[in-house]
Amino acid sequence: MGKIRVKTIGEGAEEPKKKVKKEKGSEKTHLPGMGGGERVVMVGPTEEELAKIDLPPEEAKEGEEKEKSKQTGGKSKKASKKKERSKKYTAKIVKLDKNKQYSLKEALGILSKFEKAGFDETVELHINTLEGSVSGNMTLPHGTGKKTRVVEATDELIAEIEKGKISFDILVAKPEMMPKLAHVAKVLGPRGLMPNPKAGTITDKPEEIIKKFEGGQINFRSETKAPIVHLMVGKISLGPDKLSENINTAIKAVNKSKIRNVTLKSTMSPGIKIVV
Question: 199: which residues sit within 8 A by CB, 6+ positions away?
């Protein structure tokens, strides 16, 4: 508010102009005839509040947000949501000593005590190796519990792959089919499905190889960017004894001398470190 003129009724002469002192949330002025310490406080909305009265609700809200932004130095704070584990998962963690390496028998015992999901969970083995490029194949004595889909490369199958349709786990091919498969190498390669001699999936006798893979033979290799091998070694329903035989077979196939550490887990459980 600017300067205020106060006029007394019945007097022609104007009173001297008084300076107005502004304070936050109110305006004060001296009137003639008042003592030195006496003031009239003009109570009412501030200029900012008056500006908001004429605005629609949405714009008024925007004005409030801008005002808050000024008070916080232009920084808007968003409440960060901390990832929370489920009660079931937390209960499982309590049973484990993260710094301890368990014997295989102890680890399988702990695994069997965890609360089960509503399906037959897969048992996984994650092996950190001392070097990269670890690969090989093996046949688990009790299988993985999952039916392996093995197919032979044909012109019709290549046409399906080009359309993005992949309905197999292992692809076997004759040597003469490899130039044709080169056209879909970008699709098969990243998925680890491209036939290659090391895996034994390039052969003149595909029927024999298909029978081996369907009988439980699996290929493995470490990740390209990290020295770690991921293996599926069965289902919870196999029980501790059969799982133990499968796991020992897998560790032997990878080679103990190349292993740094091993972690055992099921689909929904936390990892359990085991002694090699």
Answer: 135, 137, 219, 221
CA distances 143 to 146, 192, 219, Å, are 8, 20, 13
3-state class (DSSP) for residue 22: strand
Distance of alpha carbon 16 from alpha carbon 28, whole angstroms: 17
Report, in angstroms and rounded to the nearest whole number, the Rg of the chain calculated over CA atoms. Answer: 38
Tokens of 22: 């502004």
Q: Which helix (H) or strand (E) holds 207?
A: helix 206-214
Question: HSE (CB half, 13 Å, CA atoms) of 97?
Answer: 7
Mean pLDDT for 200-206 is 90
Name, of 20-24, 91-95, 187-191, the range with top average pLDDT. 187-191
Question: Domains in the chain, ordered, with CATH?
Answer: 1-67 (no CATH), 86-143+218-276 (3.30.190.20), 149-214 (3.40.50.790)
User: For residue 173, which of 187, 194, 148, 147 has the smallest C-alpha distance?
Assistant: 194
Does residue 185 contact residue 161 with C-beta atoms inside 8 Å?
A: no
Whether pTM > 0.85 for this model: the answer is: no
Letter for the amino acid at 95? K
**Gap between the terminal Cα atoms of the chain:** 83
Which element (helix H / strand E) includes 29?
strand 26-29
Tokens of 236: 């919870």
Structural tokens at position 122 = 């897969």
